[in-house]
């Protein structure tokens, strides 16, 4: 069994899908591992470290992928990247399937089996494979660090001989994995932290982290969680009440971090242009939902802007990868854990069980077709 780790083709992607630690484990399962030269460079991993772990270093993508049974990637490959890949080869990646049916169909034609790691069910067995959690946690941390960097004042209260400096007020909107880590990080820095979410279960989590919970707690709120633990799309009436409540709060905040997402839908707008106007100069908004349209009406994907009234709005993309070494280390462990379920350790071969619920939930393409029920071309 041959496992390949090609370099990411998107120059902006700093993560890598395997580390020397995971390479060693794969070799322990009886696999040959090939890592493309330079694949780990942006995560601070030199080719020699992969070689020391037992991998072969492939000079280019084609050589790296040749005869591979299992390909580990961070992002969805282009079909052109897969020229010459063995039929049926399994590719694990953050495949970003929503709204990309055409790209998925083109990939299906390569006859590879592409698994979307972000579709991993959130069940106990798969927690260790949960790339959304491993990366969102880092994004939540980084959002606070980025905000602190651009905030022209300090976060904690300081009592000095030259006088007292007040603590920064930090509001976290959306308390999933990223939001919880943002609360914890903001508290560690000494901020006065408040948070909101539409899922009632988050209230206790917010309080347990020492922050204050702010939300419209009506009947709709009490039902606002799917069986999978995700947020439901809220009604227009709820969103209006929510906006009314948060508007006066936002006006008093120094830093607002937004993380609100609804799977498969555009992110809800939680901060309107008027709310931004109500904030004082020097305040900072970090919009972690910017890749799905943003929670702030004014945020710009990939950019940091300053509004006329002096509010900075940060819209970095791929925030987890702003600390690439940690992001790669955790992502690589997520892939290792899933890959282990696809390998028969007796015969040392890839043995994919299509009936396994993890495979059913994540497999996008097989035998030249798009097989995932949620990602089918619209009927003509
Ligand atoms: P997410 O990234 O999909 O969304 C982030 C947060 O935004 C969510 O908490 C959501 O409720 C919130 N949100 C959506 N619309 C909002 C609105 N209008 N206003 C305010 N907030 C809004 O969420 P996530 O980080 O993936 O976590 C979702 C849930 O899954 C959490 O309960 C998390 O603890 C749970 N989870 C479970 C497992 C597991 O069991 N293996 C693993 C990870 C996460």
TrEMBL record:
Q: Which UniProt keywords apply?
A: NAD, NADP, Nucleotide-binding, Translocase
Q: SUPFAM superfamilies from the entry?
A: Formate/glycerate dehydrogenase catalytic domain-like, NAD(P)-binding Rossmann-fold domains
Q: Does the keyword Mitochondrion apply?
A: no
* Database matches in Pfam families: AlaDh_PNT_C, AlaDh_PNT_N
Q: What class of enzyme is it?
A: translocase
- Molecular function (GO) terms listed? NADP binding; proton-translocating NAD(P)+ transhydrogenase activity
Under the heading CDD domains, the entry gives: Rubrum_tdh
Among the GO biological process terms of this entry, one is: NADPH regeneration
Show where the Alanine dehydrogenase/pyridine nucleotide transhydrogenase NAD(H)-binding domain sits: 148-315
Claim: Hydrolase is one of the keywords in the record: no
| Gene Ontology cellular component annotations, sorted alphabetically | plasma membrane
Signal peptide location: none
UniProt catalytic activity: NAD(+) + NADPH + H(+)(in) = NADH + NADP(+) + H(+)(out)
Q: Which family does it belong to?
A: Belongs to the AlaDH/PNT family.
Q: What does this protein do?
A: The transhydrogenation between NADH and NADP is coupled to respiration and ATP hydrolysis and functions as a proton pump across the membrane.
Can you say what this protein is called? Answer: NAD(P) transhydrogenase subunit alpha part 1
